[in-house]
Amino acid sequence: MSEIKVSAERDYSVLLSQSWRNSLSESVQGRSRVALIVSETLASRVEGLDLGSSEIFTFAIPDGEAGKSSVTLLKIWDWLGAAGFTRSDLIVGIGGGAVTDFAGFAAASWLRGLDWIAIPTTVAGAVDAAIGGKTAINSDYGKNLIGAFHSPIKVIIDLDWFGTLTDRDFAAGLAEVVKCGFISDGRILDLLRGKKTPEIRKDESLVKELVERSVRVKGEVVSQDFKESFAREALNYGHTLGHAVELDCGYSMRHGECVAIGMAFMANLQLDLGLISKELAGDHLQILQDLDLPIKYKRESWPKLLAHMAVDKKSRGNSLRFVTISEIGKTDRLENPDPKKLYAAYEKVSS
Questions:
Q1: Given 65, 228, 233, 246, the catalytic residue
Q2: Which keywords are on file for this protein (predicted)?
Q3: Catalytic residue list contains 284
């Protein structure tokens, strides 16, 4: 079992465990009540879970981004109240990034903050959403606009969960791994170049190394900058346009697929602005295409995407803001680029 330490408003461990059940059982000792918040499709997989003397309450929420709503949150608050949850009790989120985002915010908002544990079941959840303490639900005006910084007391990653994923979902998670490579750890890109998603999935040691390296990237950034003053923004590379695409498509595409489009857009924008080399821009597109991730989106959506980006969390006042790189592992920020340059870059990733 590998253990990675994260320091934020609290210190906690990210465990790469061979048995999430055993690790969770060891982590809940002394808790009277444990709420398992799980996606509807995974609810059957937690049936019969034995957590010793802890009383278990299971709350299934809609899959994906549909579960991250104020309506669902109100139901959870009512359930926690009816079950008598107190500040010494525990919430556990079991599912993809949407579930752990939601569970973390439910924990942050009930009684001004309950302890919680994240058990991510997807690649994206394991390397990104469950790490760092950003919890949230969605608004009609954008993704994750309602939330709080509230770190888990532990994250338990069991790679066996990934066997439940389709190749499409696995590849979507790898988009966040690719991002970690470009902003911090070039070895990740070396491990990915020339490989297809099915090939990666078959190599358990490779998957473990990619997950561990990506978790370390996020853990180190979060430990430096918990509340996204500057350094943590680097983790949003490709996300400004990516979140806009998610909103425009009504979350019909996977988060990682949208981030992939966002990174392809940034490759072209940075190349046009002279911020990166032609080789580095090409590296973005080749790696993403090899993983069968999308790098194009609808041309006619540009006006809506531009409006969505204006209310992105990285914007400051009326300033549109993007995370950029100058080389692998070196990030910066770009504010209010020329609208013509933005559209020219988007045209190259539009269809």
A1: 228
A2: Amino-acid biosynthesis, Aromatic amino acid biosynthesis, Cobalt, Cytoplasm, Lyase, Metal-binding, NAD, Nucleotide-binding, Zinc
A3: no
